[in-house]
Design goal:
This protein is α/β, with parallel strands linked by helices. Helix content is 26%, strand content 25%. It has 6 helices and 8 strands. The strands form 2 sheets. It has a 6-stranded mixed beta sheet with strand order 3-2-1-4-8-5. Strand 6 (144-148) and strand 7 form a beta hairpin.
Length: 198
């Protein structure tokens, strides 16, 4: 199984730390943020992580060399010349991702308990093309919220709603079947706007 981690951002909110260090390698509790994700992915059977990167790819590659050996997982890189949003990098990395199996896609700045086994089970159970992890928050007005039907099917995303429509937000973790490649092109594309809820 494989995973694509979206590392395209410039890390502007973490400056000055990210002027010399890629955002995912900034330490959180004495460990690079991205290592928490990779360790969780390894636990569910992921054997290769592909980094979709636009900003300072050589820095990330250099930082990750020691972890690749320590964790015993393969790292590959998909370099975006121009930023491609959240879905465009999936199409760009198709040649690295498409082995006929479902694959994870994650934002690079997530820290959570990573219930990836539950997501994998949910995905296999419903049999659809993709799954998205959502989480509840107390104040949804700060986020893009996810509106779903009672069975979990996504109806829409509402960006920073003024009135309450839901308290569930996109957690930035996805699981897709390879058929998704037929619907995404190598161009700036959004998972929220152009992939879900279709």
């Amino acid at each position: 199984m494989k995973a694509l981690i979206l590392v395209g951002g410039y890390g502007t909110r973490l400056r000055p730390l990210t002027l010399t260090t890629p955002k995912p390698t900034v330490e959180f509790c004495n460990k690079a943020m991205i290592i928490y994700q990779i360790e969780a992915l390894v636990k569910v059977g992921v054997t290769e992580v592909i980094f979709a990167i636009a900003y300072k790819p050589e820095l990330l590659s250099e930082c990750m060399k020691k972890y690749e050996k320590d964790i015993q997982i393969k790292f590959s890189y998909s370099h975006e010349i121009d930023p491609l949003g959240t879905a465009g990098p999936i199409a760009l990395a198709r040649h690295l991702l498409d082995d006929g199996q479902p694959f994870f896609v994650m934002n690079s700045d997530i820290i959570c308990s990573f219930p990836l086994k539950k997501l994998l089970k949910f995905h296999k159970t419903h049999g659809k093309e993709g799954s998205i992890m959502i989480t509840k928050v107390d104040d949804p007005s700060k986020y893009g919220v996810v509106v779903t039907e009672s069975d979990g099917k996504i109806v829409s995303f509402v960006e920073k709603p003024k009135e309450f429509v839901s308290n569930r937000i996109n957690a930035g973790i996805y699981l897709f079947n390879p058929s998704i490649f037929e619907r995404i092109e190598v161009k700036p594309t959004s998972i929220k706007k152009e992939v879900f809820p279709k």
